[in-house]
Structures are given as C-alpha cells and as structure tokens.
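Why does this matter for the project? Reviewers at the last site visit asked to see concrete outputs rather than summary tables. In response, this paragraph embeds two records directly. Each consists of the residue sequence and, immediately after it, the corresponding structure tokens. Nothing has been edited or filtered.
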Amino acid sequence: RGKVIELKANVDKAVEGTPTVQSVIVVKRCNNAVTMKEGRDIWWNDAWDGAPNSHKAKAFDSEHPL
C-alpha cells in the first residue's frame, strides 16, 4: 500500500513492437521521473489544452442502436 508502481515502464514494454499503438497518454500523478518516447507519448495536460469545456450530447430515440 502506498507504493509507487512504475506503470509507464510496464506500458512501454507492453506496446513495444506493437505498430497499432500510435499514442500513449501519460498522466503525471506522483512527481516521479517518467521516460517519454518522442512522437508517441503525450502528457494528458498537453492533449487537452484548448479542448472545449462543455459538450452538447446528441439526442437519440430510446430504441436507436446508437
């Protein structure tokens, strides 16, 4: 309990050699050092800069298959 797990290192191993993974969104939580891969890894805050603060949901009929 309370132990920092280096999840990003595990993610890097998991996506190694996987061409279908184009981006990895990284959230900074524990102020620990994180190795970022240029061109693939994106900080959460950078990804959402300039994103709208609201979204108007589209209405559908209750029987619509979405």
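We now turn to the second protein, recorded in exactly the same manner.
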Amino acid sequence: MEVIVDEDLTWEVNREDSMWSLVPGEHIHVNLEKVQERWWEAVLISEEHISVRKIDPSRPITDLDDQAQAKIEEMMFNEEQKRLGLPQSHEKKVHDMLKDAWDSEGSPFRGQPFDPSKINVAPDGGSTINYPST
C-alpha cells in the first residue's frame, strides 16, 4: 500500500462523516466534513495559503436547498417590508395569532370586531392590551 498524503490538515475534520472513493485509473475523491464551518486558507499545513478575503462566496440561490432558499426569500421580503415601513413576516405572524385569539373563549374582546389598535406589540414580542371599558 502506498501512502499518498501523510500530513496534518489545516483545520479539524469530522472523521466519522468524512469519506473517500476511488475511481480506478482516474482519481481519488476525498470529502472532508469540517468540524467548524469556515473558509480554509489551505487543506494541508505545508501548502501555500491563499487569501480567503479574495474568494467570491456568492452562488446562485437555485444551488441552495429548499429550506435555505425559503429563508433567503423571507429575509429579502422582510428587508423590503422594512424599507416600505410595512409589517415584516414575524410581525404578521404575531398579528395573525392575535386575530385568532381575539374571539376565542375567555377573551375580553370576544364578540367585538378585531381592532389591533387595542393591542400594542413591542419589538421584543411583548405586548400591552388595552382592555375594553366595562
């Protein structure tokens, strides 16, 4: 057996999730799972290091998984809503929950038309309720 690489890696990898495969006569494919998500200046300690600041990390959104694409779309939506002075997605969710609870059993607002001005929602998620006069 011939040792091809016998050197330390620049950063730690997860050995259980790293693997290699051999394509006979062509190449060895090595997949290293990083322990820490970061750009590497080099794979091996002895290699010449590159400047990670010069790397263009952008990639088409279609290359990302569905969950990542949805998160980016939500962030873009929220940024646009913020720019326009409109409620962001998390604020809309709170609004929808309040609207659902408005007419629920035990609500002091039961039977009244929904009026969000009676509830002040703070940016941290806390709220103040202006109870109706009795």
